[in-house]
Amino acid sequence: MVFEPLWSRKYIRNVQQVVFSEETSAETQGRYFGNYGIIRDIVHSHILQTIALFAMEPPVSLDGEDIRDEKVKVLRSIRKVDIEDVVLGQLKDASGDVDRYTKSMTPTYFAAAMYIDNARWDGVPFLIKTGMGLMENRAEIRIQFHHVPGNIYRERFGHDIDLDTNELVLRDLPEEAILLKVNNKVPGLGLQLDASELNLLYRDRYDVEVPDSYEHLLLDVLDGDSHLFMRSDELAAAWSVLAPILHEIDQKSVAPELYDAGDKGPINAYYLAAKHGVRWDDGC
């Protein structure tokens, strides 16, 4: 009941989903990106699945079919993505050239702005980005809330108010956590506000080993639980989102922007976010 009333366009300003990979070995690049690219791999099977789970309406039960019914509705509601709202990147090799496994312009980085055209999320930008060989290994969803209307404390912030957005962060990597970033009064006699963080780190709270994601999926297979697996209509809905993008990339021969290993990725991703009124947050 704390967050459910806020879970809509009325209170949420934007949603950012980040899946970074720091793997840069030639073997990994050749195996996963030489022919398929990051769109067919990570975006289809990870990014869209997470968006569907995040944005779906409450299912009538926890039965796998009921959950997958709601996920399909989200995927079918995603607006066609304009190629102008897509940023592609390609990792350089040690010599500063395109990696020898990816000379076919297969992207190793993808960022895009997506919109879900339904009553709950209409107008809320979903900014996604995922890439290989970047400066950190991180997987999270970051929900930024609207500013307080008529904020009388605007001049009391120690930083730009646009940088002090209230946020809820659902993090999987590097450490499982739920973080709530709120604007708080700095202790003392003055009246100065700052962004503070309330955190639930699973490793500090629970003395248990968190299983690997694929361990969980294998257990679901043994138990006959299908709620995390894609149904055929869900698969088709996901491809209907990505196929037009892939077609335009192939038809127009869109060249990915080169970026260095250990970098933040293509600079155009930040221009894309600014275009949609979003500031990428690179960490708490």
From TrEMBL:
InterPro entries: G6P_DH, G6P_DH_C
Keyword tRNA processing tagged: no
SUPFAM superfamilies the record matches: Glyceraldehyde-3-phosphate dehydrogenase-like, C-terminal domain (SSF55347)
Domain annotation Glucose-6-phosphate dehydrogenase C-terminal: ranges: 2-280
Keywords, sorted A to Z: Carbohydrate metabolism, NADP
Any GO BP annotation: glucose metabolic process
Tagged with keyword Ubl conjugation: no
One Pfam family named in its UniProt record: G6PD_C
GO molecular function: glucose-6-phosphate dehydrogenase activity; NADP binding
Name of the protein described by the UniProt record: Glucose-6-phosphate dehydrogenase C-terminal domain-containing protein
Species assigned in the record: Aegilops tauschii subsp. strangulata
